[in-house]
Structure formats: C-alpha cells, structure tokens
Amino acid sequence: MRNGGAHGLVFVSMSDTPLPDISHDQHAVRRNKLAEMRAGGFDPFRANVATSHFSGDAIKLHVDGQDNAVTVTVAGRLVTIRDMGKSQFVKILDQQGQIQLYVKKDVVGDGAYAAFKKLDLGDILGAKGTLFKTKTGEVTVRVESYTLVAKALHPLPEKWHGLSDPEQVYRQRYLDLIVNAESRARLMLRSRIVSHIRRFLEAQQFIEVETPVLENTAGGAAARPFKTHHNALDVDFFLRIATELRLKRLLVGGFDRVFEIGRIFRNEGVSRKHNPEFTMLEVYQAYSDHRGMMTLIKDMLTTLCRDVLGTTKITHAASGQEIDFAGEWREVNYKDLIREATGDAEWFARSKADKIAGAEKLGLSVSSAWEEFEITNEIFSKKIEPTLIQPTFVMKLPKELCPLAKISLDDPTTIDVFELTIGGMEVAPAYSEQNDPDVQREMFQAQAGEEKQNIDHDFLLALEYGMPPAGGMGVGIDRLCILLTGAESIRDVILFPQLRPGSTA
Length: 505
Known about the structure:
single chain; 505 residues
C-alpha cells in the first residue's frame, strides 16, 4: 500500500504475508520484497526525496541544549541497523559520511514502522525530522517521515571483512566506496587536491585550457601511443601521450600563462606507479625558465599541503620518514648523483664497456644494444631515484633524455631542467623550454636510443613564428596523490583503474 507521509514524503507499508523460505538466498529474498512492494502499488525506483542537507552539514546545525529545534531532510544508504523493538537506531551514508536516524513506531505510525523494519542494509532512503543529541552524545535525526527511494537487490559485503579480494576493490569500486571509509576519504581528498591546484594557478593568472585528445602525431613525450581510426575522415589518430606541444602552440599565440589538467594515454606497462590512462598537469609560463618553475612547484605544493591537509608535514608510507614541504628542498646535479652511486668520479669519461660493467657491478641487467645514456639512466632509475625521499630537485640531466629543453650554457652535454623527486619517485619534471626552431629540429633529429619522440612538423612551423622564452612543467596528479594520501599504489587513487577484462558476477 502506498501512503502519503508527513511533509510530502512517502513511506511504504508492506503486507504481513510471510515470505517463502528462501533465506539462504539474500538476492532472492530482496527481489521477493521488491515484487511485494510493486504488487502493493509502490515502486521504490520511481520515488524521490528533496534533501535539505548532507549528513555532515546537518550534524553541524545542532546546538547543544536545543534538541528538536532544527528540521532537516537527509538521504543515504542504510549501513547499520539497531533494533530496539518499538524503535530503531539506524545510520545512513552519503558523500559526507554517516548520520544516525531514530525511527519510532509511535511517531511514524504502525504501517510505516512495519515497512521500515523490512528494509535491508544497502537500501537507499530519505528521512525528514528534527535534530537531537542522544545520551551518548551523538547528533541524531528524530524521524517524522521517510521514503524508500532505491531497493538494494544484493547484500553489501560483510562489514568486518569488507572486500576480501584486492582486485574486487578496483573492479567493483562502487562497493569499495560504500564499505571502506579509507578508500572514500582518499578519493575525496584527491578531488580536493585537484581543486586546490586549479585555484592556486588561477590566482597566479594562469588560464586553464583544453587541448585535443586525438592527435595526428603522438608527440611531446617518448611513449607508445594508443591508435584509433576516424571513419568519416578515414584517417588514423593517436590518443595523446602529452599536452606539451599543443600548450606551447598557445604560447606562440599569445597565451602567456596556460595550464591543462587532462587525461594522458600511453600504451605501456602497468605497475604501482603506472596506469595506461592517467592525469597530468602541464603548466607553461612565458618569460620564465626552469628556475621559475622551481619556485612555482614549491609554492604550489607547500600551500596545497597547508590548505588541504592542514599540515606541511606528511609521513612517507613506505619508509616512515617525515617529509616537510615547508623545509629545505635539496638541489643536486644528476651527474654528481651518478658519480656518488657508482663510486666513480670519471664515470662520464668511461667507455661503454666500462659503464656496462659498472652497472652490472651494481646488480643491474643492461644490454649492449643500449646507448650509453640509457645505461647511466638505468642506474639513476633503479639505484638513486628510490632513495630520494625528501623533496629533491635533480638538475642538469643529459641532453639525450629530452629534446624539448634548452641546452645548458655551462655544460653542452646537459639541459636546463629539473626532475622533482619526492618519496622515491618523480613527481614533476620541468624545463627551460627550447624555443629556437633550428635547434629544436636538430635535437629531434639527433635523438638516439629506444625511446624517441615523434617529430611534430606543425609544431616546428609554429616555433618559426616565434615562441617567447618559457618555463614548462608537468605534474603527475596520480603520483602526487599517492604521496599525499599515503596510498600504496596508483590504483588506490584512481576511481576506476584499468584492469584485465573479468567478471564481477
């Protein structure tokens, strides 16, 4: 039977006819209840509720000593039930957290109370009532009326064990968010991190832009792209592997400060720090350089931690070390780190054979087919970078590692760049951007090694119209979130990470 509740809300009254003995199959039990509701003229999936507050906001409205003075309408998923006979204490979950409801038979009426007792964990409902504080001090809604707005046909995972299969956490993220408060908080924090970055850059007069995901040339990075086909034009396109070259075209066009927070796609491996689809912030500032980017990233991360985390100090999850973003940020040259790791002051003068032997001495497997800079960078990636826990600007990288940066005046074998490494992983590389079209063409053509960037000829044409000197920087949003949330893997900070096809049935 369908009844009109107080304040325009609706409650359900179900028949007292006993259910068939299907208690071993909770899905069947719940479907039976749904069928009974529909037979009685009520379809919960056609019901709705106009909420006045989220749970956290509602709780803040209560004033000590003023019980039942404030009326609220809240809605959420039923996650706990405590049956007191003629009354029930339950809790519902919304995006701000949980709020307790007190449902009393004498208040909502016999039919509505009987129907309420037939609700299941996982059902979604709305409730209207007044705020009061229980004897235990918990702000609670004294329910005057309620409505069921969605019936959960499957039971939630058992609350004490949650999702026991780690892959199920990612494959059925919707369940993980319901039962795992830590996951919910971490992914909410990610949203706040991204929002703060936007506000920070806009305050510095940067303009947010959007550039194409489909590209004729997969440029701006040395990475394997995903390929697709446009039927109407009958041409192949690539999903972008970077936004760099498009954003630099905007510098040519007179947009002096631009940024984009966008999805990047690279058809490569999956690891704790890698997902084939990820989020990258790229920032470009005319009349600046890599030194200007150092100031920008330090200010951005320090204010982000202070404003979003409430502290500039975090604990590195893997090592347990304290990282203070308001403390000293070390600067060190790439070559000095290599010399220290190898114990060889003359490393960069050694032959290729000597470098292979040196790498193998450090326990690394390298190929004779590799270029010398690739052997050296393997040492940096495997033996040095993981040890850089505190914020470290690694300066003056070999020019072979990036053809898009300016060559250092004091050492033509290096480029004016930094890699900001925190927590043992690269968080943000930045360059003094190459704006000489002839040098840029030469650097593209001189690339060696396995990982080469594709040459974007239209970008070279754009440079010939004149690009102002600029600093540019990329920030891996997912890696930054791993660091700031204490997550173990990139999968923990992405709502829906890529997985092998599989069943959730």
